[in-house]
Amino acid sequence: MKIELLSQHDISRLVEIEQHANPYPWQQNAFVSSFADSYFSYKLLDDSGEIQGFYFAQLILEQLELFNICVASDMQGRGYGKVLLQHFLQEGRSRGATEAFLEVRSTNDNAIALYEKCGFSKTGVRQNYYVQGDSKADAILMALVM
Ligand SMILES: CC(C)(COP(=O)(O)OP(=O)(O)OC[C@H]1O[C@@H](n2cnc3c(N)ncnc32)[C@H](O)[C@@H]1OP(=O)(O)O)[C@@H](O)C(=O)NCCC(=O)NCCS
C-alpha cells in the first residue's frame, strides 16, 4: 500500500468507492469542487495500483478540516482508515496546521471510534444537521489540538 496525491482523473473510482462504502455518498460534483486551491487530498493505492481509499481536507490559515475519508468496503477493518487519518494529520502539520476539525453523523459509530482513537474529542452537536427525506441525524463536531 502507498499514499499519493489525488487528481481529478481519479474521480470516477472515488465515486465508485463512495457508492459502495458510504450510505450517504458524495456525488461527482462534490469531488470536482474539492480540488480548489485550499484543499488537499490523497489516495491509498494497493500493490496493483488500484485506489482503495482516500481523504479530502482543507487548510485555511492554521485550521485543518477533514471533509471526507473513505475506505473501500471490502478493505475496511484492516487499519487503512487509521493510516489515512494519520497521514491527514501529519500532512496538515507539515503545512502549518495547529488545530483539526471534522463533522460526523452521530450514527456513524465506526468513524467516531476511528476519530477518537486518533485523538479527536467531541466538542459539540448540531441537532438535525443531516436531513435526507424524512430522516434526520445530528452532526457531532470533533476537534484535535495538533
Ligand atoms: C470510517 C472508515 C473510514 C474507517 O476505515 P477502516 O479502514 O475500516 O478503519 P480501521 O480499520 O483503520 O479502524 C480504525 C479504528 O476505527 C474503529 N473502527 C473502524 N471500523 C470499526 C468497526 N466496524 N467497529 C468498531 N470500530 C471500528 C476502531 O476504533 C478501529 O481501531 P481498532 O481496529 O484498533 O479497534 C470506514 O468505515 C469507511 O470508509 N466508512 C464509510 C465512509 C465514512 O463513513 N466516512 C466517514 C465520514 S465522516
Automatic annotation (TrEMBL):
Query: Known catalysed reaction(s)?
Result: N-terminal L-alanyl-[ribosomal protein bS18] + acetyl-CoA = N-terminal N(alpha)-acetyl-L-alanyl-[ribosomal protein bS18] + CoA + H(+)
Q: Which domain of life is it from?
A: Bacteria
Q: So what EC number does this one have?
A: 2.3.1.266
Where's the N-acetyltransferase domain?
1-146
Keyword set includes Ribosomal protein: yes
Tell me yes or no: is S-adenosyl-L-methionine among this UniProt entry's keywords.
no
CDD domains per the UniProt record, alphabetical: NAT_SF (cd04301)
Q: Which UniProt keywords apply?
A: Acyltransferase, Cytoplasm, Ribonucleoprotein, Ribosomal protein, Transferase
Looking up InterPro entries in the UniProt record yields:
AcTrfase_RimI/Ard1, Acyl_CoA_acyltransferase, GNAT_dom, YpeA/RimI_acetyltransf
Which is a Gene Ontology cellular component entry for this protein?
ribosome
Gene Ontology MF terms? protein-N-terminal-alanine acetyltransferase activity
Q: Where in the cell is it found?
A: Cytoplasm
Functionally, this protein is described as follows: Acetylates the N-terminal alanine of ribosomal protein bS18.
Which family would the database say this protein is a member of? Belongs to the acetyltransferase family. RimI subfamily.
Q: Specify the protein name.
A: [Ribosomal protein bS18]-alanine N-acetyltransferase
The gene name on file is rimI
